[in-house]
Design a protein that fits this description.
The protein has 357 residues and is mainly α. The protein is 68% helix and 2% strand. β1 and β2 form a beta hairpin.
């Protein structure tokens, strides 16, 4: 008994595709864990292993020492600035007092006060000298700070030079690490891709092809995306080269199959319509009727209205293919209904109209 139910056919296709996708997803998740564990097969370098720790430690000690000296000098300078501000304030007060006193003396005219003028001017000079002494100490401390900063900058440059050399060696080691991880992953992924290609080519007609198709989809994904996290700069050439080879190989295979199919159909069309009719399978006939094409040459058997004018739409369907001559419709011997010639039973009375092939 033929199971030609359209619903069953659509459901089967959906389930087969769902099986393929589900298998593909779980394989990707499983192999993602495996690829993650493969990263530990190669030890990742750490930058500390490339640093000259004694030299960097000594430089750090010098930098910290000079930084502390600069901080102490800044504190001392801050104290001197406070004292200098106080001395400047005393000088300004004394100067204002002296100027006011001079104005008063000129107004009253007291020549006996000349010695007092001298004493006040001397005291004003002493306040000014004190301010200048503190200013000199401030300048001296600033000079010391500048010298120590120059020394610290020189040591910082030595420290950066040492660190830069370590980073360069570390970056080279990281590149080598990525290449090793990439090659380890490629060692596992490439055979999977080879199996996927083999299943695609050799197992397409297998009854368990949905499983093989799921594995094929997984192999393509894992090759083009599973290598991505650790792919080196030249790794793209590997992926794209394989992509080119796959496209060329599968394209050659597809073109070859299509050409073979075309040549087979051309050879079949050379046979008589009766011989070709014997080779039409029921499922092929069913699809041909549904999509109104000839099961032998694939041409549409429905004529356009302008090709066959008339009010009866049934006349727009020909009994024979206009392109290859195969019989398409025949009359039921029992009820005289027209039926597709390649389906086994009459659609009106159920009489068998096609003999066993």
């Amino acid at each position: 008994m033929d199971l030609n139910s359209k619903k069953l056919e659509r459901t089967s296709k959906f389930l087969y595709f769902l099986i393929s996708i589900t298998l593909c997803v779980f394989l990707i998740l499983l192999f993602g864990k495996i690829l993650g564990d493969l990263n530990y097969a190669v030890k990742r370098p750490i930058i500390e292993s490339f640093e000259d720790k004694p030299a960097l430690s000594a430089l750090n000690f010098e930098i910290d020492k000079y930084s502390q000296e600069i901080e102490d000098l800044y504190l001392k300078k801050e104290t001197i600035e406070k004292t200098m501000r106080a001395a400047r304030g005393n000088y300004q007060n004394e100067k204002e007092s002296f100027e006011n006193w001079l104005k008063t003396r000129k107004t009253l005219g007291s020549p006996d006060k000349d010695q007092e003028v001298i004493d006040r001017a001397r005291r004003l000079d002493e306040f000014y000298k004190i301010e200048q002494q503190w200013r000199g100490q401030e300048n001296s401390i600033q000079e010391q700070i500048d010298k120590i900063k120059t020394k610290r900058e020189s040591i910082n440059q030595s420290f950066e030079s040492q660190s830069s050399k370590a980073r360069q060696q570390y970056n080279k080691a990281v590149n080598v690490y990525h290449i090793k991880v990439f090659l380890v992953r490629l060692l596992f992924v490439f055979p999977i891709l080879a199996f996927g290609i083999y299943f695609f080519i050799k197992c397409r007609g297998h009854k368990f092809y949905p499983l093989f198709r799921g594995f094929t989809l997984f192999s393509v994904y894992i090759f083009f995306f599973g290598l991505l996290p650790y792919i080196p700069s030249w790794g793209g050439y590997v992926r794209y080269s394989v992509g080119v080879l796959l496209t060329a190989g599968l394209g050659y295979y597809a073109i070859k199959r299509i050409r073979a199919y075309i040549e087979q159909k051309q050879a079949e069309l050379k046979a008589s319509a009766q011989e070709r009719a014997k080779k039409v399978q029921t499922d092929t006939a069913d699809k041909a009727l549904e999509n109104h094409f000839c099961p032998s040459c694939g041409k549409d058997f429905i004529m356009k209205a302008w090709e066959f004018p008339g009010k009866d739409n049934n006349k727009n369907v020909t009994y024979f293919c206009r392109y290859c001559g195969m019989e398409l419709f025949k009359i039921c011997p029992n009820c005289s209904s027209r039926n597709f010639a390649h389906l086994p039973f009459c659609s009106s009375c159920g009489t068998k109209i096609v003999s066993d092939k």
